[in-house]
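Page header: ASSEMBLY MODEL / two components / 400 residues total.
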Amino acid sequence: MAERNNMKEQILRTSGVNPLKCMRCGKCSATCPAYDEMEYHPHQFVYMVETGDIEPLLNSESFYKCLTCFACVDRCPRSVEPAKLVEAARLMVIREQGKNRLKPDDIPAQLDEDMPQQLLVSALRKYSK
Amino acid sequence: MKVSYFPGCTLKNKAKDLDTYARRCAEVLGITMEEIENWQCCGGVFSTAKDEIASKLSSVRALAYAAEKEQILVSVCSACHNVLKQTNHAMQNDADFALRVNNYCAPDMAYHGETQVMHYLELLRDVVGFDKIREKVVNPLTGKKIGAYYGCLLLRPGKTMQMDDVENPRIMEDFIRAIGAEPVVYAMRNECCGGYVTLEDKNLAAKTSAAVLDNAAAGGAELLVTACPLCRYNLVKNGGRDLPVVYFTELLAEALGVLDATQGVKEENNG
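Prediction written out in full:
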């Protein structure tokens, strides 16, 4: 239980989000362009953090599908800003030693000649520490 | 007038047209873009994590450089602009973040959010003025139906970016009118292209990009303009449709008569 509360506190502190503001309208998930690809959707992130059910979020790949497009942030009528919870959960995983999702050595195999540098630096920021 | 200019990694490489024409057009419009010395990559995306400090230092250094010169900090790439503006906002409004940054950077540097950050489009609208641009146009793109593609980084989060109405923007449409063309307003113009997730999930990017292109084409757009190299990449590469997507600076250069002879949508069209 202590561990569970600790993880919740860490996510709240890192994100600065107050999930209690959520009124469960689901607009965040309705507007999310990555919705179909996620096991846990933005509104579920909010509820699961609120109830301290963090572990399934950390074991799922859902946060790697978030595009950081801020649609859920701007369209939330209660300014809960779900994307910040997604970011905090992702960081909780990749900040751990050996948990990088993307390694620089993986990149050459994925390159094509038109790929902008912006794509690579952004992906490294999101998938690696 | 002189402004500090943060080009960013992609404008020095895959998106040279975004950089070259931005500088060239600025000169025509009476603005000199002075590239920041020894600028470092912005990182492409701003982390919303409050305890993420080190990855934002390159942006703070750029902001402090402009503050010292008492210049506006201008960028053309949507991503650089987003990161610089969000970092500046954090320096102004998050006292804990600002303290940590300044403790780390002392004694060489102290910064408290003094710099005004502008996207090149804001520079055109708020400093130059679209009316003035209209006067300088020598080669109006008359009859061309152009869709503005904002994507997400230019506008969101709205309360920080404060560029335009996040759901009903008009800055790019006004730009399109200023160069003599006709804007096509379509619903998906501020929805995401798929961003960096394209690196590991092409299907997701194909879906999001196709939704944008299909919607723009249904509205009658012959051409899309963007300020973001990653948007352009995703739309062209993954959008599954032959709708040209160009940087807005190329069209500005064409309208102002400073485009290189080998390029140009108007010539292509007439040919």
